[in-house]
């Protein structure tokens, strides 16, 4: 069976209904191999289906299949079980980071306010044995701010001989891999180098937070809760500040749906708890989001910043104009009949193929949540989630005092070499061989 948008001549991508056994990644975890089940094994039975992400199963190597299989609840529960044993040398600090796009799912699913949903989710995780539960919004702040600065820099450096524009921005691992492995040159030089919020959160937890707690990065087991299965693949990339010290920034990614399944199957007593902060603050901070419906709103943030920085124009509401369809929209800044800036937002693979552009920075409709039992989108739940997400207070990344403090305390300033190391990445250039994690999208 060939998937709808496959670029390969042969493809064996399967759906759950085609062949559930072959489509799933079911490699035994270390806990299984050692015969170790512990008290959490009943909550760790879910399989990962490659049809839930953008990868074709024929394109995943044996090595990568093992690595993807480790992005599941079994290894998470193995750490919980080891922490309950007397051998403290095996203990790890468990930290979970929640993507803001996941919280409306829990709120809608359990009919709670988004604040109550975060407190119940935090309480559940801590009842299992998790030590810290963080919000990844601060990591998205860094990603947005660095994307803004990079666009302005590219705009000023752009010329016909060495074009620096357009800048293509996306934190979707599927799009990034497609651009690297399929489109290649001349697209990759135009990819924004700012790391995704997930990658930055890995650096924050395994570097900044680890140093504050006087811990070695390998003594922290860091879990990301995200809406999308593609984030499991992103976690395999050793492209974080701490990788050189033998510790991946994200050890495990669990989808919102996987966590919800654990909550439904668990009979542990849960006491609601407030989210933690990287700074050890006792006071509970108000949940917030970035401008944009269902995403972190990178286009709006970069557009407003560029308008002010380059043309001294203050943009209030960003007006989108539909082009070919509602998922392909344009935003322009015009003055005296001249177009000064032209941005486009494209969602969906068809629009990517048409314009080689995708500005999708996180979504409420990731396939790791809001799915019915037969794998279809739960439209009623998704609509409820959109309303909940829209009600979360909006705050500009520039307004975060914590971010400004981190630039100085953690990164030695906004323009230091450590900023490039911690917050930016490099993409595979033309002619470079793909590594063992190569996937065709």
UniProtKB/TrEMBL annotation:
Subcellular location, record wording: Nucleus
Region annotation Disordered: where it falls in the sequence: 1-36
Positions of the Iron hydrogenase small subunit domain: 375-431
Protein name: Nuclear prelamin A recognition factor
Listed Gene3D superfamilies: 3.40.50.1780, Fe-only Hydrogenase (Larger Subunit), Chain L, domain 3
InterPro entries: Cytosolic_Fe-S_CAF, Fe_hydrogenase, Fe_hydrogenase_lsu_C, Fe_hydrogenase_ssu
Major localisation: nucleus
Biased composition (Basic and acidic residues): 1-19
Keywords: Nucleus, Phosphoprotein
PANTHER family on file: NITRATE, FORMATE, IRON DEHYDROGENASE
Family: Belongs to the NARF family.
GO molecular function: lamin binding
Lineage top rank: taxon: Eukaryota
Self-association state and partner proteins as the record states: Interacts with LMNA and binds to the farnesylated C-terminal domain.
A single cellular component GO annotation: nucleolus
